[in-house]
Write a structure and sequence with these properties.
Layout lengths: L13 H15 L3 H12 L8 H13 L3 H14 L4 H13 L3 H14 L4 H13 L3 H14 L4 H14 L2 H15 L9 H17 L2 H10 L7 H14 L3 H14 L4 H6 L6 H15 L5 H9 L2 H18 L4 H5 L6 H24 L13 H16 L3 H14 L4 H13 L3 H14 L4 H13 L3 H8 L9 H7 L3 H13 L3 H21 L3 H8 L2 H12 L5 H19 L17 H39 L14 H4 L5 H9 L10 H14 L2 H14 L4 H10 L11 H15 L5
Helix pairs in contact: 1-2, 2-3, 3-4, 3-5, 4-5, 5-6, 6-7, 7-8, 8-9, 9-10, 10-11, 11-12, 11-13, 12-13, 13-14, 16-17, 17-18, 18-20, 20-21, 21-22, 21-23, 22-23, 23-24, 24-25, 25-26, 25-28, 28-29, 28-32, 29-32, 32-35, 32-36, 35-36, 36-37, 37-38, 37-39
Length: 750
């Protein structure tokens, strides 16, 4: 939390006024016990028992000691005693912010500013929450007020430029950064620091984003000697040259960049040639192969540019070198070439030629007579391994198993052979055999974390949850269950696979618990940016700060959250279809029972349920009291906000399953994610909720992604019944929905 705004006239006697200053000092130094003691000393004076600002500070101190209920009580009391104190409003906002009630905290800051409109500390706190909640217009206005109040402080103008950038007012942001840069301009170039170089690069990126490419080129050339991150400067200059049509100048810089990093594929793509660019690029790659013989990208690019016999010669050389060196990733290196059937056929022919040559050589030449000119003995092994991958790509799984078995027979200790054999079994949907094979690979190298992870993943896909936990426990914290440790470490792949396995095993509550933990992790990722709003501006890492904000805006586009949301929505949809009936009560629906016996059994079950609920409430109260006692033992440390416990039994019986599904899907509605299953579950959930506009929009996205999918035809039939239902919705939504329905009616599958 930030500090408290400086106190105004508290109307305290001299002695208590001195104590209050000391109270503020103890709070800032995090000596909470002493601060609480001083607050109680001030309030012990009968005339000051209801002093608002002291009560507010006492409450703030208690909140840091984990005593939230007492804290809120004291702060509200203080606020009630002195509604015209900006300190009370500020403190109330700080407590709300600590509990992540950002909108409520903003209201408190606004009320505090009504009393003291030019308070720097409160304005800073308000600006932080505005950017956190993406109130960009308010953030811009607040930052402007701060810059006007403290015009000599460069950081305020820097923050104002960032606010303008986020709001899209790029020309003004460039002007502000120009003034900011002038304020920081060193007298001598040797006095230039990294911070000043960041100002130049940020201003350059603003110009690029605004489309002012000539100005960007001039700016980058003028201040080149002040910048420490030369690669970023040169890359931006290349973009500006290309956008301005100056290809020759761009090429000169790209040659320099390629000399530094010959593996960057983007540099090759940006190169421009006057005629027949493919032929010229091919010649350039040949030159790069001579100057950078260890670089692989100049050897891979020609494979994409050539055809026929020329391609055959190049790919044979590439394959021979890779098999000779024993590169396990050789197939993945050229996998993209398989999109062209003619190239895939040539690759197959050349590998078989290498295989025949190796078989002939191994049968004719003994180890005693082999020379240095011969290929390594392991070449045959890696040829078998490559052919297994090649056959798997063609979905000829029987042949793939034959080749991988030959590789294992050649070298029984090669981990890669066993792991790829497991992958083949996975593609054949023989998941238990895949898991056993991967487990065998793991036994060959127990210290390899990657193989350990793959083994755990395959075991989970085979629903062998206990075996997976045993394997994964080798690299997790001792004395703690592997599943708990991996969830705490935000190991998302494990959480997703584990939730899927538990769902398949019918343990719906446990699966939902893991999915809710994933949701909480992503909420924490969003909340964690709060600490960086002030830090990044203070350290002048502006480009990274803007990138962070844009990343956070789309963080839930990550595949792990999307997969978790889809799975959670599917589970809740299944739960919503289970209608509670009297048969849910054990034995009550038995036809052999009389009405009197049924009534007795029902009363007995109700009493048992009431007793169980009472015991649960008592247990929760005892645990809460225990936790409260624990906090008191070490109350100089701030206590983290407690989250509601996730109980699998309770999660498996939600009161409103569709609303729970919406909780996962709602953050994704504003993001355009090309994921068919996501839009499928959005349609299913929201059409059941009666939110037809959202459902129709999801169907349109499904139609654009997979128009011939059977689910599209099914949803389209359901959608055509919406027309008579949307009449009761607001006119604006009705109009949009009707237009979408018209597009759905006219849709013809390809």
């Amino acid at each position: 939390m930030t500090g408290v705004a400086e106190n105004h006239n508290t109307s305290l006697p001299p002695k208590e006024a001195g104590l209050f200053k000391r109270l503020l000092k103890m709070y800032e130094q995090k000596q909470y016990k002493m601060a609480l003691k001083i607050a109680k000393q001030i309030l012990s004076n009968p005339k000051l028992a209801d002093h608002g600002e002291t009560l507010a500070m006492k409450g703030l101190t208690l909140s840091y000691m984990g005593r939230k209920e007492e804290a809120y009580e004291d702060v509200k009391r203080g606020l009630k005693s002195d509604l015209k104190s900006y300190v009370c409003w500020h403190v109330y906002g700080l407590i709300q912010r600590g509990d992540k009630k950002y909108e409520e905290a903003m209201k408190c800051y606004v009320n505090a500013l009504k009393i003291d409109k030019d308070n720097i500390q409160i304005l800073r706190d308000l600006a932080t929450l505005q950017v956190q909640l993406r109130d960009l217009e308010g953030f811009r206005d607040t930052r402007y007020r701060l810059a006007v109040l403290r015009p000599s402080q460069r950081s305020h103008w820097l923050a104002y430029a960032v606010a303008l950038h986020l709001q899209g007012e790029l020309p003004l942001a460039i002007k502000v950064m120009e003034e900011c840069r002038k304020l920081a301009h060193p007298e001598k170039r040797e006095d230039c620091d990294v911070e000043y170089g960041e100002y130049i690069l940020y201003q350059l990126e603003l110009m690029m984003e605004a489309g002012s490419f000539p100005e960007a080129i001039e700016h980058s050339l003028r201040y080149e000697s002040y910048v420490f991150d030369n690669v970023s400067l040169l890359e931006n200059r290349v973009k500006a040259y290309l956008a301005s049509g100056k290809k020759k100048e761009a090429n000169e810089i790209l040659f320099t960049l390629l000399d530094r990093n010959a593996e960057n594929w983007k540099y090759y793509q940006d190169l421009s040639f006057p005629t027949d660019s493919a032929e010229n690029l091919l010649e350039f790659c040949k030159e790069m192969q001579k100057s950078k013989p260890s670089a692989r990208t100049p050897k891979k690019i020609p494979l994409t540019l050539t055809q026929g016999d020329e391609f055959r010669i190049l790919v044979r050389s590439y394959l021979t070198q890779g098999l000779q060196k024993g590169l396990p990733a050789l197939f993945n290196d050229i996998k993209l070439l398989y999109k062209e059937p003619s190239k895939a056929s040539i690759i197959e022919e050349e590998v078989f030629k290498i295989l025949d040559m190796e078989k002939s050589r191994s049968s004719q030449v003994s180890p005693q007579t082999s020379s240095d000119e011969d290929l390594p003995a392991s070449t045959l092994l890696w040829t078998y391994y490559f052919l297994a991958q090649h056959s798997d790509q063609k979905r000829d799984y029987i042949k793939a198993l034959e080749y991988v078995d030959l590789a294992i027979e050649h070298t029984p200790t090669l981990v890669e052979s066993y792991s790829f054999k497991a992958k083949i079994y996975k593609h054949m949907n023989r998941l238990v055999e895949a898991a056993d094979c991967m487990d065998e690979a793991q036994s060959l190298d127990t210290s390899d974390r990657f193989i350990n992870y793959k083994t755990g993943k395959y075991l989970l896909r085979a629903n062998l949850v206990d075996r997976a936990e045993t394997i994964l426990a080798k690299f997790t914290r001792e004395g703690m269950k592997a599943s708990e440790n991996l969830c705490d470490m935000q190991c998302f792949w494990y959480m997703i696979e584990s939730a899927r396995a538990l769902n398949r095993l019918g343990k719906v509550g446990e699966a939902l618990k893991i999915l809710h933990v994933i949701d909480r992790h992503f909420m924490d990722i969003v909340d964690d940016q709060l600490d960086f709003h002030a830090y990044c501006l203070r350290k002048s890492t502006i480009r990274s700060y803007v990138a962070l904000i844009r990343l956070e805006d789309s963080v839930r586009q990550h595949k792990f959250y999307v997969n978790a949301a889809v799975l959670a929505a599917e589970i809740y949809l299944q739960l919503s279809e289970k209608q509670p009936t009297d048969s849910d009560d054990d034995g009550i629906n038995d036809p052999s029972m009389s009405a009197a016996d049924k009534k007795k059994l029902k009363n007995k079950q109700r009493k048992a349920k009431k007793k169980a609920d009472s015991e649960r409430i008592q247990q929760e109260a005892a645990e809460k009291a225990k936790a409260h006692t624990k906090v008191k033992k070490d109350d100089d440390e701030p206590a983290a906000a407690q989250k509601e416990d996730l109980v699998p039994e309770k999660l498996a019986k939600p009161e409103d399953p569709l609303e729970q599904a919406c909780h996962f899907l709602r953050p994704l509605l504003v993001l355009d994610i090309p994921h068919f299953d996501l839009h499928r579950v959005i349609f299913d959930v929201y059409q059941r909720k009666g939110k037809y506009a959202i459902a129709v929009r999801s169907l349109l996205r499904m139609m654009s992604l997979q128009p011939n999918h059977p689910k599209v035809a099914e949803c389209r039939t359901v959608c055509l019944d919406f027309e008579n239902t949307v009449n009761g919705v607001p006119s604006a939504i009705q109009e949009v929905t009707q237009e979408a329905l018209l597009a759905i009616k006219q849709f013809v599958p390809v």
